[in-house]
Structures are given as structure tokens and as C-alpha cells.
């Protein structure tokens, strides 16, 4: 079986940690409007991502994240540094 890709792992974490139950999500799915994230749950998500991918703190970068695709891109960018 193939290993999950980074976007797959990010998507799973975002959905799993979402404050509301969701069905299908796309890259354009908004964290706050569609998934119910607020400032506290976004901080919790940031901590989960940092732990899952062994990322350095991404506080400043995370303030611009609005959609699932933004989260995927952020993780990919930080891992590429």
C-alpha cells in the first residue's frame, strides 16, 4: 500500500480536528466558514501540524491560512526550507 502524501496527511488532520463534522472537502474549503474553526481551534490545528510533521513554530505564516489548500501549501513550504 502506498504511503499517504503530505497533502493527504494534512487533509486528514484538518478534517479530524475540525470543530464541525464535514463530508467532502476540497482545497478551496474554508477553515472558518466551512469547517467551523475559530482562533483557538486554529492554534490547536497549528500545534497538531507542528507535531505531525516536526515543523518549527509557524505562527506568522499561519496567520495567512484561510483554506485547506493554504494549509497544505504552508506545510509543503516549511518542509522544503
Write up this protein:
Pfam families: PP-binding. InterPro entries: ACP-like_sf, PP-bd_ACP. This is Acyl carrier protein. The structure is a single chain. This protein has 81 residues and is an all-alpha fold. The protein is 54% helix and 0% strand. Helix 1 runs antiparallel to helix 2 and helix 1 crosses helix 4.
What descriptive keywords fit this protein?
81 residues, mainly alpha, Non-ribosomal Peptide Synthetase Peptidyl Carrier Protein, Chain A, 54% helix, 0% strand, globular
Briefly characterize the structure:
This protein is mainly α and 81 residues long. It has one domain: Non-ribosomal Peptide Synthetase Peptidyl Carrier Protein, Chain A (Orthogonal Bundle), CATH 1.10.1200.10. It is built from four helices and no strands.
- The CATH architecture assignment turns out to be Orthogonal Bundle
CATH class, please? Answer: Mainly Alpha
Q: What percentage of residues falls in helices of 4 or more residues?
A: 40-55%
What is the number of domains? 1
Poorly predicted runs: none
Write out the CATH superfamily name: ACP-like
Average pLDDT metric: 91
InterPro entries: ACP-like_sf, PP-bd_ACP
Protein name: Acyl carrier protein
Pfam family, one: PP-binding
Amino acid at each position: 500500500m502506498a504511503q499517504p502524501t503530505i497533502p493527504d496527511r494534512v487533509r486528514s488532520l484538518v478534517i479530524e480536528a475540525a470543530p464541525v463534522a464535514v463530508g467532502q472537502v476540497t482545497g478551496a474549503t474554508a477553515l472558518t466558514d466551512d469547517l467551523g474553526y475559530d482562533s483557538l481551534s486554529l492554534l490547536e490545528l497549528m500545534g497538531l501540524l507542528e507535531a505531525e510533521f516536526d515543523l518549527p513554530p509557524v505562527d506568522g505564516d499561519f496567520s495567512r491560512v484561510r483554506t485547506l489548500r493554504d494549509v497544505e501549501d504552508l506545510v509543503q513550504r516549511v518542509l522544503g526550507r
